[in-house]
Amino acid sequence: MAGQEHRRPHVAMLPSSGMGHLAPFTRLATLLAKDHGFTVTILVPTSLVSVPESRTLDALFSSGLDIHRLPYSLPPPLSDNIDPFFKQWGLISRSIDELKPILENLNGLSALITDISLAGAMLPLTNQLGIPNYIFFTSSALMLAFVAHFPSLSTDFANHPVDIPGLPPFPPASIPPALKDPNHAFTTLFQANSNALPKATGIILNTFRAFETDALSALAMQAHVPPIFPIGPLPPDPLGPSAPMDWLDGQPNGSVIYVSFGSRTTISKNQVDELGAGLEASGVRFLAVVKSKVVDEGAQGLSVVKGRGIVVDGWVDQGSVLGHQSVGGFVSHCGWNSVAEAALNGVPILAWPQFGDQMINAGVVEKSGLGVWPQGWCGERVVNREDVCKQIKGFMGDVCAREGAARVREEARKAVADGGDSHLGLVRAMEKWSHH
Ligand code: UDP
Ligand code: G50
C-alpha cells in the first residue's frame, strides 16, 4: 500500500534451560533472520545455568543478524537438591508476572515460540493476552505422541505397556523413569505441560516425515492435538574450530567412533571404567566425551590421548564432530538434538539411552534404520567392558547400519531442501508468523 513501510515479521522466543532446549531455538532463530527476513526477539533470563548456554547466546546476539536479547529476571529459587536444569524450568515458569508486561509491550509481534518445558505456565498467559503461542517440542514426534496421550493414562500406567492408537505399544521400560514417581519435580511440570498442550496455536518439531512417519500420522489422528509443523533436521549453528578437530583431521575416513551422553548427563565412575576398557579393547579409534560435572563451566573440554583414542571432559562442538569425515559411528544417549544431528550427517548411532525421553528416542533410531540399540543398553544397569567391546566392534563393521544411516541422511537432506516436507512445514509456519 502506498506510503506504508514494509515491516519485517516479528516473532519472540522463550527457550528453556539446557543446551538440548536452547540449541533448537537458536538454530530456528538463525534460519528465520538470515534466510527469511524475520526479526527475532529472544527472552533470556539474567542468569543462565551453564557456560555453553551463555556462549551460544552471546555468539548469536553478536552475529549481526536481526536477533535481539530481551532480558528478564528470575524469582528466588524455592527448592534445592534438584537437577539445576529442572530447577531453572521451575524458575522460568514462575516468571510470568515479569514476562506479561514484556510480552504486552513487544511491537508488532506475530507470535511467541515457547519451549515445551514452559507450556503449562505460558499457554494460559498468552491465551489471555491473545498472542498466538507455538510450542517448540524439542524431542521426537514419538515422544510427543506419548505426551499428548499422557493426560488420558490411568495412574498405574507404568505397570503396563501404553497403547496409543496407530502406534506399537510403549513398553514400561521405555517410559521416562521420573514419571513413575508422582512426587518428582519433573512429573508435576510434565503433567501441567501435557494438560496445557491443546491450548497451543501449533507445535513445531525438529524432525521430518520420512524419519517419523508413523508417529506423525498417529498425532494427526488425535483431535485435541494442535497443528503440527515438522521442520527438521535444523542445521547446527557454525561455531569456531575446537580442539579435537585437529586430532580428527589425522584419522582415516570413517574410522572413529564418537561417544557422548549429551550436555547434562554424567555416568557413574564404574560405567566410565567399563566404557574406557571396552573402547580400548575394541581397537577402534575413539573420541569420547565423558563429563565429570552435570553443568559445564567451560566452553571447551580438556582432552587426554588414550591409546588409539582421545577423551574429553566437558564440551566439544558436536555439530562439527558429526560432520567430520573421519567419524564413522556415534555412541549416543539419544537426546533428540543428537539424533537429529546424526540423521543430518548420516552417522550411524549405537544407542545407549540413559533416562527421560531417551529410550523412546532410541526406539526411533532403531526403527528408522539410523542405528542399532543393543539389548540391555540403558541407564538403569552397568554395561560391562566385554559387551562394550563386542558391540562396538560389530557396529563399526556393520554395513547395514552404515547404509541405513546414509539412507536417512538422503531423506533428511530432501526434507529440508526447497519443496521438501520440512521446508514446506517451515513455509506454512512462517506464513502464520507473518501476520499480526
Ligand atoms: N552438545 C555439544 N557438545 C557437547 C555436548 C552436547 O555440542 O559436548 C550439543 C549437541 O550437539 C546437541 C545439544 O548440545 O545439540 C545436546 O542436546 P541433546 O538433545 O542431544 O541432549 P541433552 O544434552 O539435552 O541431553
Ligand atoms: C528429562 C526427563 C524426562 C523427560 C524429558 C527430560 C523430556 C524432554 C522433553 O528432559 O522428555 C519434554 C520436556 C517437558 C515436557 C515434555 C517433554 O513437558 O527426566 O521425559
Automatic annotation (TrEMBL):
InterPro entries associated with the record: UDP-glycosyltransf_plant (IPR050481), UDP_glucos_trans (IPR002213), UDP_glycos_trans_CS (IPR035595)
Keywords linked to the UniProt accession: Glycosyltransferase, Transferase
GO molecular function: UDP-glucosyltransferase activity
Domain of life: Eukaryota
EC number annotated for this UniProt entry: 2.4.1.-
Family: Belongs to the UDP-glycosyltransferase family.
Protein name: Glycosyltransferase
Organism: Amborella trichopoda
